[in-house]
Write a structure and sequence with these properties.
Elements (H helix, E strand, L loop, with lengths): L2 H19 L4 E2 L6 E2 L31 E4 L13 E6 L5 E6 L14 E6 L5 E3 L13 E6 L5 E6 L14 E6 L5 E3 L13 E6 L5 E6 L14 E6 L5 E3 L13 E6 L5 E6 L14 E6 L5 E3 L13 E6 L5 E6 L14 E6 L4 E4 L13 E6 L5 E6 L14 E6 L5 E3 L13 E6 L5 E6 L14 E6 L3
Antiparallel strand pairs: 1-2, 3-30, 4-5, 5-6, 6-7, 8-9, 9-10, 10-11, 12-13, 13-14, 14-15, 16-17, 17-18, 18-19, 20-21, 21-22, 22-23, 24-25, 25-26, 26-27, 28-29, 29-30
């Protein structure tokens, strides 16, 4: 096994461990920063019917020539002076939220911590979101933002103790900031308003901002939470009710950790990653799987399964769900979800919960499977476009940068294109990750170490970019 392959295997192992930590902030060596993990909230409406194989085989073309913009900048356009990532975008593509360690994006940022910012692409204004109702800056790290459809509500997790009154614990909580009223409220609470007694992280907010799904180790959010594991909860900000959703159809709590929630736009469905073996019948693979729980009916079903309903034989980790809950995209190292999966690595799959079909999405425009790892999937509002990051070199012509790039696969035309490129079509010269899309799939956000995507990128750290695919 050559050195390059060993290096990649080591990297993959580290990335997988980070995914299992599910929101824990991992301290980066030597720079006093923290690397936040992210879960994205997709937005979607009417969706096309997927077929197991593409019906169109387009001819490969040149790299995209859309327009790319850096958005992890101050209102005057100054680039952030430290790391930015974990972005999400509003349905119309106007607002981008992200987490950043930068101290120069807004005046008087003196807390020395990751904060949540929002950038308005129309007015070019950047403002701080991780603040209390009185406007006080959070006193500790805030990460993993999730934005409502219109950009009014932003959910995030934070270690800050001063965002709401009477928050005495040292564990992170989940908050929602109302940009219209300025109010910040804690949502990792029980139905009677008592704050969680352990970690709560990784929020995912519905399109109207009413419902927030999150992962928590707390055992006091609902009655009889006695499994001692991470669970998935949904808090209704209108009724103030908190419910446990990482349960079987019969309401039995998962017997192992459940993490990484994503809520459908209408708030009816919640997908999550779980090691539990008792959520559905026949789950004997002893691996991390993806599940979906329908809140109205209480039905839980497996998502990381074949078109015949057989659970995949490998770990399935990252995922997102369409607004009506019909489509779930996820990454998996399973090699039995579709026929002919021979690359022995993580791939991107789309599960149609209506037709019960599972298809491979990390392919090039001729349908050839990616020749290396693909991860971080995100699906557009209409279910047509899937964005993901990949190390593969065969998804487009002339991909020679030997790193993770951001791709978009069109499930309707079967075309795959790259978006982590400059406005002139130049490949990024370093890794790109964490894609998100607006409702239509026109705007794709992502974070990148590349310094050649825009002019004068000299800050030597990760930035957040938006790529306009229609320019």
């Amino acid at each position: 096994m050559n050195v390059r392959r060993l290096l990649k295997l080591l990297i993959y192992f580290v990335l997988f461990l980070l995914a299992l930590i599910a929101g824990v902030l991992v301290k980066a060596a030597g720079n006093n920063e923290f690397l936040p993990l992210v879960v994205h909230l997709p937005n979607s409406t009417a969706l096309p019917v997927l077929t197991p194989t593409p019906t169109i085989t387009p001819t490969p073309g040149p790299l995209n020539t859309g327009e790319i913009t850096r958005v992890s900048v101050a209102t005057d356009g100054t680039a952030g002076n430290m790391r930015s990532g974990s972005s999400d975008i509003s349905s119309d593509g106007r607002y981008v939220v992200f987490s950043s360690y930068a101290t120069n994006l807004v005046p008087n940022d003196t807390n020395g911590a990751f904060d949540i910012f929002i950038h308005d692409k129309e007015t070019l204004e950047t403002s701080l979101v991780s603040v209390s109702s009185s406007g006080a800056q959070g006193g500790n790290d805030s990460t993993n933002p999730s934005i409502s459809s219109d950009g009014r509500f932003v959910a995030f997790s934070s270690y800050a103790y001063n965002l709401v009154p009477d928050n005495w614990d040292i564990a992170p909580d989940v908050y929602v900031h109302d940009r219209e009223t300025g109010e910040t409220s804690r949502v990792s609470v029980s139905s009677d308003g008592v704050g969680g007694n352990d970690w709560s992280v990784l929020p995912s907010i519905s399109v109207d901002g009413t419902l927030v799904a999150f992962a928590s180790l707390s055992n006091n959010l609902v009655i009889d939470d006695d499994n001692g594991n991470w669970d998935i909860f949904v808090h209704d900000r209108l009724t103030q009710q908190t419910s446990l959703v990482s349960v079987s159809t019969g309401g039995v709590q998962g017997n192992a950790a459940s993490i990484n929630p994503a809520i459908s736009g209408d708030g009816r469905y919640v997908t999550f990653q779980s090691f539990a073996g008792n959520l559905v019948s026949g789950d004997t693979n002893d691996r991390s799987d993806i599940f979906v729980h329908e809140i109205l009916t209480g039905i839980t079903q497996g998502v990381s399964v074949t078109s015949g309903g057989v659970t995949g034989n490998g770990h399935s980790v990252n995922h997102s769900i369409s607004v009506d809950g019909r489509y779930v995209v996820f990454d998996s190292v399973s090699d039995d979800l579709v026929p002919g999966d021979f690359n022995e690595d993580y791939d991107i799959f789309v599960r149609d919960l209506v037709t019960e079909q599972t298809v491979l999405a990390s392919v090039n425009s001729q349908g050839l499977q990616a020749n290396d790892r693909s991860q971080d999937p995100f699906i557009s509002e209409d279910g047509r476009f899937v964005a993901f990051s990949s190390w593969a070199s065969n998804l487009i012509d002339s991909d020679t940068n030997q790193g993770f790039d951001i791709f978009v696969h069109d499930l309707l035309t079967a075309k795959t294109s790259i978006v982590s490129v400059s406005s002139e079509g130049l490949l990024g010269n370093s890794w790109s990750s964490e894609p998100s899309m607006d409702a239509s799939g026109r705007y794709v956000t992502f974070s990148s170490w590349a310094d050649n995507l825009v002019l004068d990128d000299t800050n030597l750290t990760t930035d957040v970019f938006v790529y306009d695919r229609e320019e």
